[in-house]
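Aggregate trends can hide what the representation actually does to any particular protein. For completeness, the protein is quoted in full, as a sequence line and a line of structure tokens.
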Amino acid sequence: MMWMADRWEEYQVLDASKGQKLERWGKYILVRPDPQVLWETDMAHPGWKKPHARYHRSSKGGGEWEFLDLPEQWELRYHGLAFHLKPFAFKHTGIFPEQAANWDWFGPLLSSQAHSSPRPRVLNLFAYTGAASLQAAAAGAQVTHVDASKGMVHWARENALLSGLGQAPIRWIVDDCVKFVEREIRRGSQYEAILLDPPSYGRGPKGEIWKLEDQVFTLLAKCSRLLSPHARFFLINSYTTGLQAGVLEAMLRLAIGNRPGGKYASGELGLPISSRPHPPRPALDFAPFPSEGHGFALPCGACCRWWRED
């Protein structure tokens, strides 16, 4: 299964070839590396020759940006949300556009409960620059946004102001996510929804080492203790190659168990590639192609969802 982030107006994957993707971010064209792009195309799109910036990966690890005509910062919008973008370490711009498929999924789950008392409580761990937090807040939830980087939390707060959500009920917390969860368990805190988007490797504010494969199941088990009896959903993403969607689902099923009315689904997140339409496919009695109608799709990591409907 592939969930497509296909409702963007200001972002687009124009082409992908030879380990790189050509993207439109608003009015700017960027070339960035992508390890999933193992195929080759004719690279006929003119953006390949005249991008506004290009990220060059180093054979020794990491890399650097080559800026041709790109501002230090610009804005991108998505259905009422707005984000500051800027190129920074390891090819990133401040947002992962494929995650829009998840925002579109959990937004209605929260908005259906937004008028309840109290509002649904959402815990967003490894919350980065806050896109998921803003979507949850816009849907009417109370949000606890946690990230180990003070700079990322500051950036998220800027995005909240830009989106008109400066006064939304969001707690901004700079902390090691694992330690925060452990303290919330001791405090008896509960949440109706948990978002978990951990990096493959990272460090906490005091140098704590995070390695996804070693710690993710333990963290999932701890997070499950924070789900309230009226929990709406749990979402986990992974960009680590070894953690496929089926692995995420197995871990989440073990951590959460069979709650009444709960459903599980796992798969990949994807972005349509606008310049690569599929040839016609044979008519079948079932639909095995989740990207049908979108043409060629760029896989962007694994995802597992648990949710409960009324």
